What does this fold into?
Amino acid sequence: MLGVMETADALALASHKGLDLVEMAADQRPPVCRIMDYGKYKYELKKKEQLSKKKQHQVQVKEVRVRPKIAEHDIDVKVRRARKFLEDGDKVQINCLFRGREMMHQDVGIEAMNKVYRQLEDIAKVEREPHREGRRLVMLISKK
It folds into this structure.
């Protein structure tokens, strides 16, 4: 803390020490400045930002497709994949695709989706109930 001083004196002091005069708060009266190595300061800020980005996880929506006439083993495979997605912190969108006359029996598709969800109930919760989008049913689940 050097107190209030003229700009020219502060610049001279900084250059004498081989450092930079950095304005920290320009809106204050008088402006607040700091004598520091600006290159080192920018480097440390960049490293902090990289470290914080490394710890972040972008939540993605992964998709698992089922069909109304899906077999039990196929459901187990889809459940394992969905469980891995949920454990990684992603959301899972379960799609049930209908072809031709399968549209007349949407209850079979809802039952197939519910079979998948029942096996994931221990780690997942329904974020969006099954609803129709054209020729498919869509349900969104996320980690508890």
About this structure: The radius of gyration is 29 Å. Residues 44 and 50 are 10 Å apart (CA to CA).
